[in-house]
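User: Before I run my own analysis I want an independent prediction to cross-check against. Here's the chain; please return only the structure tokens and, at the end, one sentence I can use as a sanity check.
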Amino acid sequence: MTETMRVAASGAELRAAAALLGVAPAALAPELLDPGARLLLTDGAAAHLRRRWTDAGRTEAVVLRRSTHVTGRSALLAVASAWGCSTVHDAGTGRVLEVAGPPEDAPLPERFAHLAALAATRVEVAVALARDSGRDQRKDDGSWSIAADDAAHDAAVEVLAPLGVPVLSEERADPAVPDDGPWVVLDPLDGTGNFRAGLPPWAFSAALVHRGEAVAGLVVDLSSGRRWAGGVGTGAWRDGVPARVREGSTVVAPSGRVVRVPSTAWRVRVTGCTAVDLCLVADGSAGAWHDLDRSGTHVHDVAGGLAVLAAAGGVALTDDGAPLRLRPDTETLIRFAAAASERSARELIGAVGR
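Assistant: Structure tokens:
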């Protein structure tokens, strides 16, 4: 079998995988829409995987069905790595393989992608264990700070430390960043208010930034398991399927007491989770996003989604129409519009006004 296995994303691919695995399409249909499942397919071979936790508390990618021996194939190992799994487990043979990370001399974006996925997995556990522990507090801007925020920060920073670059986070003071040096910025738990209320989505967001550009990013909707990843030269992905922007009339916007509806929009969605909002523009679910009708947004809220957006072909322009550049400063607010094209972004800026 070749190494060109892809994640099935259509009804035709679902039926092809079902035929190869010897099951009815109805047995696999729900898996096509489940972020915790993958159907891998290539000419003459298919595999059905699910993500799960072991009794020891480790995450693994389980090969539930396969049409031929595929457990050691790079496509399965890549799925496991993107899921933040430690192992791949073949349920048929009992074989277990460790998921090795990139070598230390691998390009920084490649190492970031692997460790960011592991960090998201650690955060999943940390926020669940921290739920309802500690005292909830309102910050000066009206948003919530809860025990889960600190737990998520500590879990993520520990995993990302081997990258050897400064890590900026909403939960801590900014470290020094060398001029022209790379840095990581993360929001360990974006949408804290949603998390506290039990209202999805809430997300883990991380980005690798160099010279003002988010060159790689990961956003994981921790409430559903949806994952968006992207980087310069690698493209953008949603749950293992290539993602691409598309023009549209749906605009997503940050939560607030008042949301201004631009004349270019037929509808406005407010999710309460900025990282996910930008990814919805990146995968074509929405046409644009903006915070032009308010004081702005912080770099940790948007960097992960901006990396995915750029990799998917989208653009982000400041309120004066200039390309957005990111700075290692989690205090300063930035205002911009994100859209499928520069034309759409400029139309949105003009429609909302300054």
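Sanity check: The mean pLDDT is 91.
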